[in-house]
TrEMBL record:
CDD domains hit by this protein: PT_UbiA_Cox10
Protein name per the record: Protoheme IX farnesyltransferase
Pfam families: UbiA
UniProt source species: Paracoccus broussonetiae subsp. drimophilus
Alphabetical keyword list: Cell membrane, Heme biosynthesis, Membrane, Transferase, Transmembrane, Transmembrane helix
Catalyzed reaction equations: heme b + (2E,6E)-farnesyl diphosphate + H2O = Fe(II)-heme o + diphosphate
Length: 305
């Protein structure tokens, strides 16, 4: 029995500790992509129904986060980046996180089905399962491709939002999926470049641990080249236009240039400046995804006007 399993904690944890289990900062970007997918879909939704749908998708995302924290409590405790999460910090018992995750999973799926449609609800249920079971329990600890395959979980939300409005899947939603899916590896590998020791201590087979930082740098740059065509292609669909294409072109040039700088750097250079370029690229990756979806939203409003 581990220290975490033996933890008996306080009788009643604070509300904020349970909110932290839902990974609100991480899930905020995911929820935003779902909202954009819903809002730009060709079939408009009643604003109140749309609000409810996004709320239930957010609850489903939070449920995934709670289940992830429940299962990963042992490795969170040894990683500097995650040691202060509610379970390893001794604020919330593991069984509470499991109960919260399962309860919110059931609630979010049922309510999304009633508010929008059951296709979208089934899609949300599959996404929760994929993140909690396929990624967290299986892939994360077994293969350096954990982020590549597991990244699908974070790429499904814009498709779920689209499905809420349309009841199905379209080329546009598939390309939004591809945008997030191919963005995920360089985003997380950039983080892994300057957080390798955390993953090493936790025994997670991140690419930096299994293949080294030099190979990871090559993969980061390679994925920026794979990502760009899908991002641009989205601009030539019914949800795209001149505004989105302009923003996407600039962002992809910056992203490719950043990946090239990472590729050309030696480990000695990175250590010397405290991984300044890698950290800057990681921040750029956050802006990259957010601004792409914001541009889709702006393009939709321009079209409406």
């Amino acid at each position: 029995m581990t220290d975490i399993d033996a933890y008996h904690g306080p009788a009643e944890a604070g509300f904020g500790d349970y909110v932290a289990l839902l990974k609100p900062r991480v899930m905020s970007l995911v929820v935003f992509t779902a909202f954009v997918g819903l809002w730009i879909a060709p079939q408009p939704m009643n604003p109140f129904v749309a609000f409810c749908a996004v709320l239930f998708i957010a609850l489903g995302g939070g449920a995934s986060g709670a289940l992830n924290m429940w299962y990963d409590a042992d490795i969170d405790a040894v990683m500097k980046r995650t040691a202060n999460r509610p379970i390893p910090a001794g604020l919330v018992p593991k069984q509470d996180a499991l109960a919260l995750g399962l309860g919110l999973s059931l609630l979010s799926v049922m309510m999304l089905g009633l508010a929008a449609n059951w296709f979208a609800a089934g899609f949300l249920a599959f996404t929760i399962f994929f993140y909690a079971v396929v990624y967290t329990i299986w892939l994360k600890r077994s293969t350096p491709q954990n982020i590549v395959i597991g990244g699908a979980a974070g790429a499904f939300p814009p498709m779920i939002g689209w499905a809420c409005a349309t009841g199905g899947i379209g080329l546009e939603s598939l390309l939004m999926f591809a945008l997030v899916f191919f963005w995920t590896p360089p985003h997380f590998w950039a983080l892994a470049l300057f957080m390798k020791e955390d993953y090493h201590k936790a025994g997670i087979p991140m690419l930096t641990v299994t293949h080294g930082r030099a190979a990871t740098r090559r993969h980061v740059f390679g994925y920026t080249l794979v990502l760009a065509p899908f991002a641009i292609w989205l601009g030539f669909t019914s949800v795209g236009g001149w505004l989105y294409l302009s923003v996407s072109a600039v962002l992809n040039l910056l992203f490719i240039a950043g990946g090239w700088r990472i590729l050309r750097r030696s480990e000695d250079q990175a250590i010397a400046d405290g991984y300044r370029v890698e950290k800057k690229y990681f921040r750029l990756s956050l802006y990259y995804l957010f601004l792409h979806f914001l541009a889709l939203l702006a393009q939709h409003w321009v079209g409406a006007w």
